[in-house]
Amino acid sequence: xxGTESEAAAYEFTTLTCIPGTMHYKxxxxxxxDLPGIIEGAAHGKGRGKEVIACARNADAxxxxxxxxxxxxxxxxxxxxxxxxxxxxxxxQQPPDVTFNKKKSGGIRFxxxxxxxxxxxxxxxxxxxxxxxxxxxxxxxxxxxxISVDELVDVIVGNRVYKxxxxxxxKIDVITIEEVDQLARMPHSLVGSVAKKYNVGxxxxxxxxxxMIWDYLGLTRIYTKRKGQxxxxxxxxxxxxxxxxxxxxxLCQNVSTQMLRDFNFAMVWGKSxxxxxxxxxxxxxxxxxxxxxxxxKTNAQQRQDKKYQQQVxxxxxxxxxxxxxxxxxxxxxxxx
Length: 336
Known about the structure:
This protein is of the alpha/beta class. The chain folds into four domains: about 20-95 and about 165-215, Rossmann fold, CATH 3.40.50.300; about 100-160, no CATH class; about 220-295, Ubiquitin-like (UB roll) (Roll); about 305-330. The chain contains eleven helices and 15 strands. It has helices at about 50-55, 70-75, 75-85, 125-135, 150-155, 175-185, 210-215, 250-255, 255-260, 300-305, 310-335, and strands spanning about 20-25, 30-35, 60-65, 90, 100, 110, 140-145, 160-165, 165-170, 190, 220-225, 235-240, 265-270, 280, 290-295. Strands 12-11-15-13-14 form a five-stranded mixed β-sheet. Strands 3-9-10 form a three-stranded parallel β-sheet. The protein starts with 18 loop residues before the first strand and ends with a helix. The relative contact order is 0.09.
């Protein structure tokens, strides 16, 4: 998938360390980390499981490769999901729509905008008792959806991460067509064979596995354009829905913080525009393969900004500090 050589053999757990690689897809580069396999009890440190899970916790998406010939007996998918859930990784779930704020005083205030059917006859009393178990005596909690007890605990603890996850069942050439059909119908799953090149191609080829990873990452390609010039279609700016979002503001943050500070408006060509070009604001959501031209403020517009004097003073202080440091280095060099 990436062209990076990784040890493979007929026995299990051949990968003993993290092997990085780069996947090329749709003119973009995606970093892929081949991690060692984990076993039952990895969440408690068995088989160096904590190191592997810590790396997976910081990823944007997780791809779990399973052996199709052994899945029916060993239930590897269920074991892996249980281990990841134990350490606070929620697979293919959305964070509960709950606002939770701790306070120094004032007691516990609980409210909801929908009926809470999963928290028993007295949801407020149950939520208060759970918070007191975690030594929280003052907080505001507002539930905007019908949540369960586990989801309420996740919100209160606050260290849960929600990751998109896809499953790839390898070695389908050693099982029957009925078993392949059963595995293919499981949610978030794709079947294939690396040896026979089923649904897996060469590093520079497009295949269903790469497309599935791209979709689960939620990536969007944006092409930039200068005024009076053709758009640069050679290397797009890749935005992630998981990280900073896919708006014009996210594009400015990825290109330059100064562009975000001096932003005036944007001209957008593509699927997200009602007409081409469309003049858009900083919160306009972008679609895949949009062409964007950022127009910054003129000098006259910048002078009218309330923070203009503060910015000028900041640039001046930075310039004089740099000049003073260079003078000190020159003097110390002459003395030495």
